[in-house]
């Protein structure tokens, strides 16, 4: 691997030429994207045309793109460390943090990292427990793992089995990770349509999991339409083996966004992809395929929709959400192309596959989500690179709204949305294309700030550690957290 400390930026700023209008129209007419990696086996790559490969190689030779696997970053970002994938060779997914440990999901299971020395992180243990996408969260000694592929049973030795078979299993697995070198699988909870993601909500003697899943089918006994809500799992803290589903609140009594053909290029709402809760504000923001929602969670067992928005012009798949610290803004992401498409290019433009920044106006039940602007990285990526807005977190700086965010092979972007209408990038990190001849799935799945460092879960390259040194972000180094589940957003209390 070649690493450069450089401020070089890929050429090409936003503004699609008329010559690409046909390409864009064809793209928008394609079938709505499901979030990728989709439930099931991780998708394989495919060869691109000789003409595309030639263009990619030419752009690298001209210095318009980094070389294959070349690391580049802005002058204020440093690549501190990397741990390549080891026993778990499938896609790396989400991250959670507690104390001096990071917990990383992988389609094959999960990994526990010791990050007490961020410049020299170490793998503590790797747990083989296949079941995409293995979204992960942590609470004291309990680790929660999402299974969103139809399995033969709820064990870690299960094998794929069609969802059309009633005996198939999908849902939440619970591990005791008190002994970091020897985690113990202690319980499971089956949920309708599995668990693509889950969100941990603290509450008294129990914790709650809002379980997000979607894509029902009349042929699936445990995932039949309509599927217009979320499963709520209650986990007693002192008896996690008694965890169970307590409710399935309907968030879309009208069925939600109908998608195509009513709204071409937009996903039909058949559930939620991800929900971020902000317990200190008693709020949640749901990214639900064709809809974005604001919820009141003052009663965690009974979340209630306050407002709902759609963007049927530029959003294809509402994927995830992040509040600012004051709780008066939400950043929603659009996973155009399902995470597998090369959408960071002039043909797609700056407003699709981007973040949508919304202000929260009003009070109480009169609060509304009001659109302000889009944010998208402007470093054009190769046509062999999957790139679109994905998972990120706040960088806690008093008086400012700053995020770090993953963009798959677009890398990691640090950006400021203090001015909702005029967001701007502060710094970045990325690698060159995984391949110049194949469209391979890779790049940063999640990029989160935790106790002075940015940690990135790279689908193909493993676990990256970064630092950002900038007058705008430096105050965050004074904020120290005991735990971070990004979708259970903390009150940083500057």
Our count of helices gives 2
Q: What's the β-strand tally?
A: 32
Radius of gyration: 21 Å
Structural class: mainly beta
Please give the alpha-carbon distance between the first and last residues: 39 Å
Task: Walk across the major sheet and give the strand order.
Answer: 2-27-26-25-24
Q: What does the main sheet amount to?
A: 5 strands, antiparallel
Low-pLDDT segments: 1-9, 13-40
Q: Assess the beta-strand content as a share of residues.
A: 35-45%
Mean of residue pLDDT values: 92
Helix amount: under 10%
| Shape label | globular
Please, could you describe this protein's structure?
The chain is mainly beta and 494 residues long. 4% of the residues lie in helices and 38% in strands. The protein is built from two helices and 32 strands. The strands form eight sheets. The chain has a five-stranded antiparallel sheet with strand order 2-27-26-25-24, with no helix packed on it. The longest helix is centred in the N-terminal third of the chain and has 12 residues, at 50-61. It is globular and about 60 Å long. The relative contact order is 0.16. Mean pLDDT is 92; it is low at 1-9 and 13-40.
